[in-house]
Design a protein that fits this description.
The complex is a heterodimer of chains A (333) and B (542).
Chain A lengths: L1 H22 L2 E5 L3 H15 L3 E5 L2 H11 L7 E5 L1 H9 L9 H6 L12 E13 L23 E2 L6 H14 L1 H14 L8 H10 L4 E5 H10 L5 E4 L9 E9 L6 H11 L2 H11 L2 E2 L8 H4 L12 H5 L1 H10 L4
Parallel strand pairs in A: 1-2, 1-3, 5-6
Antiparallel strand pairs in A: 3-8, 4-6, 4-7, 4-8, 4-9
Chain B lengths: L11 H18 L7 H9 L2 H32 E2 L3 H7 L8 H12 L4 H10 L11 H37 L4 H30 L2 H6 L4 H11 L3 H26 L16 E2 L2 H37 L3 H29 L7 H10 L7 H25 L13 H25 L3 H9 L4 H30 L2 H6 L7 H9 L4 H32 L1
Parallel strand pairs in B: 1-2
Classes of the chains: A alpha/beta (333), B mainly alpha (542).
Chain lengths: 333, 542
Amino acid sequence: MQSFFLRFCLLLLLSLPVVNAFADPLVVYSARKEHLIKPLFDLYSEKTGQEIRYITDKAAPLLARLKAEGNNSPADILMTVDAGNLWHAAEQGVLAEIDSALLQDNVPAHLRDRQNRWFGVSIRARTLVYSTQRVKAEELSTYEDLADPKWKGRLCLRTSKKVYNQSLVAMMIAELGEEKAEEIVRGWVANLAAPPFSNDTKAMQAVAAGQCDVTIVNTYYFGRLLEDQPDIGLALFWPNQNDRGVHVNISGAAVTAASKKADQAKALLEWLTSAEAQQIIAGLNMEYPINTQYPVDPRVSSWGDFKADDADIAKAGALQAQAVMLMDRAGYR
Amino acid sequence: MAKKVRISGLDLPGILLAGIVVLPLLLVFSGWLQPQTEVWQHLAGTILADLIVNTLVLMAGVAGGVLLLGVGLAWLVVMYEFPGRKIFEWALMLPLAMPAYVLAFVAVGMLDFSGPLQTLLRDWFGSSQWFFQIRSTGGVILVMTLVLYPYVYMLARSAFLTQGIRTLEASRSLGMNAGQAFFRVALPLARPAIVAGTSLALMETLADFGAVSVFNYDTFTTAIYKAWFGLFNLQAASQLASLLLILVVFSLGLESRLRGRRRYHESGALAGSSRSQLHGWSKWLATGLAGVVLLLAFVIPVIQLLIWSFEVIDLELDSRYLDLLWHTLLLGVGASLLAVIAATVLSIAGHPKPKPVNRLSARLATLGYAMPGSVLAVGIIFSVTAIDNVIHSVSRLWGNESSGLIVSGSVLALLMAYLVRFLAVAYGPVETGLQRIKPGLLEAARSLGCHSGGLLRRIYLPMLRPGLLTALLLVMVDVMKEMPITLLLRPFGWDTLAVRIYEMTSEGEWQRAALPAVTLLILGLLPVILLVMKSRQKESKG
């Protein structure tokens, strides 16, 4: 009798996690910061009753964790910025294919995985920001032009260690070839007015303070800076309008291969690309909606329309290592 | 007679601890099983040489800086009387609570070209080109030194105090002047403490990624992260990290060889009140020096953080801060208790005559401090998932299909990671305290019939108490400041203040990071103030 009781208790103890699995909320590993995802998840939970849990970290450690946990991983969804990160996650085999007509409809083909393992959720444009006092818009033209000696001592850049710059250079390799891309990056380095900055905001502040005249940043950083200091004397410029267009990247999401709740996870992904969620996403961080038919935030639309590069963004992942090595060779820190 | 390796039951806990630390490190070393020729060729052909030079320069600079500030200031406040000495004596420990990445972003925010100071200078003089370039080698060394000197200061100061002024008076009466007494008596006697403090500072410098990335200063650690985040090559990153570890083992080994078998048993007599009074300009110079250090390392950055916090307080402050505070505190207390118990077990096992097995387990168990946090965290994840897989297979025997992950993603895994990382911090003060217990005392106690349990209760714990408390508080501060391990291993909902700082700084919103930073600083001040009170108590007793 006693031993039966003991065994019962042990069984109960061991089965606890299994019982939990049924009532478990959706689990998200997110490289997007809490204040950018929480409002979305809160609204979704309120509407559907689906509870959502998340942890945030950088993409690479999250991916390492996902991989180490393997089939036992509690994660259902991986959210990151930059297609490069998602491409690597897919390569490592931790993402599941999702069959969803809605997602394929809402997300343009070049901003999602060919095998439907990851999807863009928002678009971010990496463009030029210049000093309105020292530069005329006519002087600017392309990313490549910033390598011209006329910009010597006038260029500020964020560090090459940031994935945004790695993707930018990767897409340049895809378009122009490695040799030409390296020549351009070397030109940039020769034109630098100051050692590379640790973030986009610092680079823009340096332009505003007169340390340099032009830099390359993601538009939402510009938007944030402008909200704090409307008269900072900076303006956006859309480069490469006569050829491939402005470099765009995504923040994206994927369902993990380990997920036991793939259907619920898919439903959340689909909702993230819906008009309702997209409006919040566009408003929260001043990014562009993934579906170009959805309205852009009014603050963002004031920057004007532009032609975006429509090359397959998966290349940013495939060529990322090549881009990093190229920038090392060129002395771009 | 052949020498036999004897291992007694007392050694087992130490061996187990060494195992806990070594397992994740070994998993990091296992990266070598898959050679990554391409990455190595690339690194060697481009940036590796620069990175090594950068790292060595940084290490040398920080070593020089913390020795100069730490030992110099400790000597000043112990030996001399000058205006404000009583305040400086404890206030100089305050920067312990300042995370390196916070001082880094405050320094760059204030002093870079676009910062308020240089803007002001340009308004006045039209140019600020001549101004100190903060994003430079000198800038990084300065910031790391200001954050890390308290380790040396604290340990050196207590060593100088316990040497007793009498030892020094004796040396003076033998005809040495003040300088000779310092270099020939005080410094050699305080060497274990100074070395312990400096090696903590250097290991922290080696493992640092947060502060150097604010400066975009590339060190060996940068290469580790580049291989991992940029080239998505975790194997190459592990290989680089393990090289770093080998470097640390080598230098620690070198130091202990240089120190030889000298043992230091100090008199235990504490300094009296016979400080020499400084006069005239020299007393104001002393005040000025101590004041400048305190201003740069603590007062000015705190004021700047408060100003920034005030600007964003409406946006930032909400009820979540209570949770953040609570988690930070809970993890700090839990991990530090664990680390101190472990450190005590580890060091007492080999006392008073450490066997090779004790030395080895202590050496191995304190290696985690030199491993960059993120890399270590991945090693921990591999170990805990391995443990989980064992649990998993056992529970299968009971007919369960899936038990999920039990250890990984739990507080247990996080605490284990902190233990691996910070055992060295706890071990230092405990071991130093232990060295003061003379073997004769133990023999006397034994001859009076006192054995293991009694020895622990009646001799070790009372005599180690100051060391244990120091260890506890040091680890607590370190854990609360820790960022990469907390980020990767925290269970759902266990966000801490450091996590919040990361979320803001990684988006470049440094102003918004000021509020959690200042909160973390205040929280970190609690153990530091306890340390301060403790050190004063000790003094008044002496």
